[in-house]
């Protein structure tokens, strides 16, 4: 993990449902936690017996909190193993290594109103948003989508906020076009959740004339799905690295002992942008535009893979 590191002690673990757990953490040395803004996340360096994961989770504590952090982790059945490690192995009192908070999904400071649309575990960055809105008396409207059996759980997480502004949709009808077209000028739209939900929200907003400057989104991991194995050649070092079907290109490079620059590990920030010298990338990021993707000259190594059996990178 590049950059400053935090040693965090697990203060408590609260099961919210069979698949959701809330982890409270504090500095291992007893000091204050570094400050963060609404929408920030922690990236954990999780070390198992035979595998390492670097997983990012949104901070759900109020940004004014300085004694503790909290994250909510969903156990994903077909994940790469990080969420299972958090659920099954991590215990109270354990020390976890994490990066300082980073924020790729901040709140706009010039918005007249904030429209939030989330699905499932995509609610987590909005929990810190709501705390910030409450302290500043900011205008907002939240629409959250979940399965009917989880509606009570998410309702409990949102219980401390204005019920008139919060709408939980668990199989009920929802007119997205009507909501998007009825917002006052100066509203900013934020969406987080499954890829299909975010694509629908953003595409519909563009259809209604929302400018790109007022659209904000954060993916929480669908791009990490595996694929066919391939070989990555690091041109500058001469290393030849086998990328397994169950790991990302970045993970394979790190496993080989290299530490390329990266931040979000979700294909959104551009920090891990790498030049492609040979081979064809399979783009899975949210950073490159259509022309840049078509040129196949660059790849976001944190989420993208190779369509060819072999790819040569300027690393």
Explain what you see:
The structure is a single chain. The chain is α/β, with parallel strands linked by helices and 315 residues long. The chain folds into three domains: 5-99, Translation factors (Elongation Factor Tu (Ef-tu), domain 3); 113-218, Rossmann fold, CATH 3.40.50.80; 223-313, Ubiquitin-like (UB roll) (Roll), CATH 3.10.20. The protein is 19% helix and 31% strand. The chain is built from seven helices and 18 strands. The strands form four sheets. Strands 4-3-6-1-2-5 form a six-stranded antiparallel beta sheet, covered by helices on one side. A five-stranded parallel beta sheet has the order 9-8-7-10-11, sandwiched between helices. The chain has a five-stranded mixed beta sheet with strand order 13-12-18-14-16. The longest helix has 13 residues, at 124-136. The protein is globular and about 60 Å long. The mean pLDDT is 91.
Overall structural domain count:
3
For the biggest sheet, the summary is: 6 strands, antiparallel
Helix segment tally: 7
Q: Structural class of the secondary elements?
A: alpha/beta
Tally of DSSP β-strands: 18
CATH topology of the largest domain: Rossmann fold
Strand content: 25-35%
H/E topology pattern: EEEEEHEEHEHEHEHEEEHEEHEEE
Q: Using the coordinates above, name the CATH class of the largest domain.
A: Alpha Beta
- CATH H-tier superfamily of the largest domain: Nucleotide-binding domain of ferredoxin-NADP reductase (FNR) module
């Amino acid at each position: 993990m590049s950059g400053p590191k935090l040693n965090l002690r697990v203060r408590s673990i609260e099961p919210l449902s069979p698949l959701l757990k809330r982890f409270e953490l504090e500095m291992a040395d007893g000091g204050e936690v570094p400050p963060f803004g609404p929408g920030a996340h922690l990236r954990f360096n999780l070390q198992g017996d035979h595998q390492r994961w670097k997983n990012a989770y949104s901070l759900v504590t109020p940004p004014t909190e300085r004694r503790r952090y909290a994250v909510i982790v969903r156990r994903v059945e077909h994940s790469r193993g990080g969420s299972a490690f958090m659920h099954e192995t991590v215990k109270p009192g354990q020390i976890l290594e994490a990066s300082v908070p980073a924020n790729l999904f901040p709140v706009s400071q010039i918005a007249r109103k904030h429209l939030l649309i989330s699905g499932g575990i995509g609610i987590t960055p909005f929990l810190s948003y709501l705390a910030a809105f409450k302290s500043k008396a900011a205008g907002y409207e939240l629409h959250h989508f979940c399965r009917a059996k989880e509606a009570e759980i998410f309702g409990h997480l949102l219980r401390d906020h204005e019920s008139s502004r919060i709408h939980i949709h668990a199989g009920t009808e929802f007119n997205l076009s009507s909501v998007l077209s009825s917002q006052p000028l100066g509203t900013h739209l934020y969406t987080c959740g499954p890829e299909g939900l975010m694509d629908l929200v953003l595409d519909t907003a563009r259809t209604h004339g929302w400018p790109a400057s007022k659209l904000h989104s954060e993916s929480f991991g669908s791009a990490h799905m595996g694929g066919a194995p391939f070989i990555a050649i690091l041109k500058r070092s001469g290393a030849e690295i086998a990328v397994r079907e169950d790991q990302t290109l970045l993970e394979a490079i790190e496993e080989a002992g290299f530490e390329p620059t990266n931040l979000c590990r979700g294909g959104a920030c551009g920090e891990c942008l790498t030049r492609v010298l040979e081979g064809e990338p399979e783009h899975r990021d949210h950073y490159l535009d259509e022309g840049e993707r078509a040129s196949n000259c660059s790849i976001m190594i944190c989420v993208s893979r190779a369509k060819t059996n072999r790819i040569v990178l300027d690393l």
